[in-house]
Amino acid sequence: MSKGTAIDLGLTGAYNDLFSTQEERDNAGRTFVTDLDPAEISDFPNHPFHVRMDEEMEQMVESVRERGVLSPVLVRPMPDGGYQMVSGHRRKFASELAELPTVPCIVRELTDDEAIIIMVDSNLQRERVLPSEKAFAYKMKLDAMKRQGERTDLTCAPTAHKLKGLKSRDIVAEQAGESKDQIQRYIRLTNLVPELLDMVDNTVLKEKGTLQMALRPAVELSYLPENEQNALLEVMESEDCTPSHAQAIKIRDFSEKGKLNPDVILSIMQEEKPNQVEQFKMPRNRIDKFFPAGTPAQKIEDTIVKALEMYRRRERAMER
Fold first, then answer.
1. Which residue has the higher pLDDT, 1 or 184?
2. Residue 54's pLDDT is what?
3. Which residues contact 276 (CB under 8 A, 6 or more apart)?
């Protein structure tokens, strides 16, 4: 046989089919790229990620106006016609503001649960994700993965993970780079009334004049029934403050014992928080000469207080 002679093995089909899985061939057959009118694309139902008209969006609109949409959005065809956005809500919004006639799209056949998982994972890659967005996104993904786990006709990654003995919440935590306890804390936030949840988001947005509440106390308050959350909200707004973690634990404890009412809430909220105690600071170099090197800060503080007490007694004695 001469060098370079082609050998006919009698095989039919594309050469690449020999080195791809059935799943890859199926996925390739149900995916294509095209340009679509943004009006043909409906938003994802209960989409947990906000599309904000902020400075970053203004920059995206300008970029899209000059160069178009460089990265296609992901959509899925709907049974009744049209398409549904899966990933790329912000790019679509920018295209509409830039008045582009079409937007490049990857069209892919996806089940509801497959679409949810892709939508959540792609949006969690944003630079700034609000606590409320994480809360509803993690819950949607976890519910979708649990439904997939109950099916026997799927061969996606979650099923493979389950073969390793991992639970859905462990997988969500692993993929998000969070602990499973932190995932559960975020999901608890979905039980807050919107006004309280906004206060958790404000810790990220940091808008002036807004009440801000940390994650841990918010989680404790998520166990309160809605009427008690609203009663707490009224006190928080009237007192212009949010509870510390310790106060939130106390409020939840009174709630679980059936003893929480507006008077109790007000009493707890008026307690002085440790971080509200005014602190007095003095440069260390001003007092170092009075103490041996290495003297603990607490001992220095105690000594100064004793010296001041002696000074006050002396001043009072001189006044007599």
1. 184
2. 86
3. none
Q: pLDDT tens digit string along 120-153? A: 999 998 888 999 999 999 999 999 998 887 543 4
Pairing relation of β-strands 73-77 and 83-87? antiparallel
Q: Which of 41-55, 210-224, 243-257, 278-292 has the lowest mean pLDDT?
A: 278-292
Other Cβ atoms within 10 Å of 128 Cβ, number: 10
Provide the residue ranges of all domains of the chain, joining segments of one domain with +.
25-110, 111-190, 192-276
Report the predicted TM-score, pTM, of the whole model to 2 decimal places: 0.71
d(CA 234, CA 223): 17
In the chain, what is the straight-line distance between the N-terminal and C-terminal CA atoms, in Å?
124
CA distance 121 to 116: 9
pLDDT digit string, tens, across residues 162-200 = 435 578 888 899 999 999 999 999 999 999 999 999 999
Q: Please give the Cα distance from 215 to 295 (Å, whole number).
A: 37
Spell out the CATH class of 25-110.
Answer: alpha beta
User: pLDDT at residue 36 above 60?
Assistant: yes
How far apart (Å, rounded) are the C-alpha atoms in residues 55 and 53? Answer: 7
